Amino acid sequence: MNLSKGAKLVCFVASLTLLSVNEAFARSRRIRVPDWMEPYMAIFLVAMLLGCLGVLVTKPRGVPARELSRIKTSPLLNFFRVFLGTMFAFFMVMLFAGMILVRLE
Length: 105
Prior knowledge:
Structural class: mainly alpha
Distance between the termini: 44 Å
Shape: globular
Helix content: over 70%
Largest sheet: none
Strand content: under 5%
Number of strands: 0
């Protein structure tokens, strides 16, 4: 990933973060979680970002990310892969649980 793609990604994530703070955007979104869950969701998003960056930094050159499970890799890369998958799973569980809690209110 070259610098321009990384800068575009950072700008895109920052704009989404600022947009989600906007009150009009927050009321019109269809996927909602209770307000008390939002900091936890943000923590999981940051953890997923760190896991993704860890995978990108530690993966061997010339190997696509989709093929990492087929080759022998370092334990650090395996840790980042498992960490990313775990954080993604927890994030999705909290998202769906939050959607159910909003419906029950």
